[in-house]
């Protein structure tokens, strides 16, 4: 199902939601793909460690830069994890969206995304039943600002990549 999901994401169809992707793929099963994405237990730590190692080996430079940037994704419903009325930089206004904070690595060689964290608004972290229903891991249920998410990524992954600089967009420089 992972392969089929990636095929759907890379396909030329306009909507990248599960239903249209599954319908566009031969043998696509909407329910099975929804279960794979929504209820599957991803064990991606080994793959991520290999990714960080490859970024270090191929892009790493002592004067590299770690870059933090939050990005909002407009949503029309309320069931997706973290969806709330909040600032959505993509739209340039407060609206219904999900927000993730990304950590990138930039050197004179190239650039790559190396980590991300989903921002959970306070209204989500206060609603235990909603967190349970959405399958949010217990260790991710406490409220953290976008800046705190960046600091956690820096603490956990910063030493894995050589760098002399840390940067972010204007939101990261406000506090």
The helix/strand series, from N terminus to C terminus, equals HHHHEEEEHHHE
Instruction: Compute the CA-based radius of gyration.
Output: 18 Å
Q: Strand count, sense and closure of the main sheet?
A: 5 strands, mixed
Portion of residues in beta strands equals: 15-25%
Query: Percent of residues in helical segments?
Result: 25-40%
- Catalogue the unreliable spans: none
Gap from first CA to last CA: 42 Å
Question: Could you give the count of β-strands?
Answer: 5
**Form type:** globular
Number of alpha- plus pi-helical segments: 7
What average pLDDT do the residues reach? Answer: 91
Structural class: alpha+beta
What key phrases describe this protein's structure?
about 180 residues, alpha+beta, 7 helices, globular
Written overview of the protein:
With 175 residues, the chain is an alpha+beta fold. 37% of the residues lie in helices and 24% in strands. The protein is built from 7 helices and 5 strands; from the N terminus they run H-H-H-H-E-E-E-E-H-H-H-E. Strands 1, 2, 3, 4 and 5 form a 5-stranded mixed sheet that branches.
């Amino acid at each position: 199902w992972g392969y089929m999901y990636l095929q759907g994401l890379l396909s030329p169809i306009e909507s990248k939601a599960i239903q249209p992707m599954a319908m566009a793929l031969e043998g696509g099963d909407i329910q099975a793909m929804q279960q794979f994405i929504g209820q599957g237990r991803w064990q991606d730590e080994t793959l991520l460690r290999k990714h960080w190692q490859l970024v270090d080996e191929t892009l790493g430079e002592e004067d590299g830069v770690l870059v933090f940037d939050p990005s909002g994704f407009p949503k029309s419903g309320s069931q997706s994890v973290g969806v709330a009325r909040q600032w959505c930089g993509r739209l340039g206004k407060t609206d219904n969206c999900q927000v993730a904070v990304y950590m990138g690595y930039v050197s004179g060689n190239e650039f790559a995304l190396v980590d991300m964290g989903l921002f959970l608004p306070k209204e989500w972290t206060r609603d235990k039943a909603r967190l349970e229903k959405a399958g949010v891991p217990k260790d991710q249920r406490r409220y953290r600002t976008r800046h705190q998410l960046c600091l956690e990524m820096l603490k956990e992954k910063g030493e894995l990549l050589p760098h002399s600089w840390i940067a972010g967009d204007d939101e990261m420089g406000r506090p």
